[in-house]
Fold this sequence. Notes:
Blueprint: E1 3-8, H1 16-23, E2 29-36, E3 43-51, H2 54-64, E4 68-69, E5 72-73, E6 75-78
Antiparallel strand pairs: 1-3, 1-6, 2-3, 4-5
Amino acid sequence: MAKKLYVGGLPYSTTDEELRDAFAQAGAVSSAVVIMDKMSGRSKGFGFVEFANDDDATKAIDMWNGKDFGGRTLTVNEARPMEPRRDSRGGGGYGGGRGGRW
Length: 102
């Protein structure tokens, strides 16, 4: 079964290919993506690497977690599902709870 890893602490210049190449040292990488900011187009400093083999994913965690990569210390662990986001506008429904008039 495929296992997806979260990789935090990436240098902002890291490309998908560099991430794939680094983690391929642990085994066959199915996918590797550096997450980019939609507005600026720049890296957010984290990404995800997916392995087809759970043993390779475990090996990658052991190999890279806490290690230096491009001058930054990586955090590598099994990715968890994204938590639902709260509405950043606060309130809810019409008027946002601010007591304004219609």
